[in-house]
């Protein structure tokens, strides 16, 4: 039971470390996560599932960063070209597959939020 509590504590520390690294816009790599979370090599050897957890979280966060950057760039391109920002225009500009969008709720919600935000910005301008 004590091992499970320690493991959960380390996982919380890892989550906080990843959030800190992202907020500082530093490079998200295994070594920096372990350093910020103050986890030693001995700890990683003691709890081998921590290594997999860290790598999985890093992969997930990097995918989110890539998606966010694609959507932000697409919005900038569409605004620069004085084109309307719609769900379909963002989907095409980001070159997302429609199956990929509809199966990934994060992408779908991020595009919806971007469309709503830009629609509100247009309404305020008028």
TrEMBL record:
Listed name of the protein: Uncharacterized protein
């Amino acid at each position: 039971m004590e091992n499970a509590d320690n493991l959960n504590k380390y996982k919380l520390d890892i989550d906080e470390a990843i959030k800190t690294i992202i907020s500082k816009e530093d490079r998200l790599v295994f070594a920096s996560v372990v350093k910020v979370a103050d986890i030693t090599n001995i700890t990683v050897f003691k709890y081998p599932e921590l290594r997999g957890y860290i790598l999985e979280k890093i992969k997930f966060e990097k995918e989110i960063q890539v998606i966010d950057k694609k959507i932000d760039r697409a919005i900038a391109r569409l605004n620069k070209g004085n084109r309307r920002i719609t769900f379909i225009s963002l989907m095409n500009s980001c070159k997302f597959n429609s199956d990929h969008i509809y199966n990934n709720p994060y992408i779908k919600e991020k595009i919806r939020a971007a469309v709503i935000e830009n629609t509100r910005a247009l309404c305020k301008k008028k």
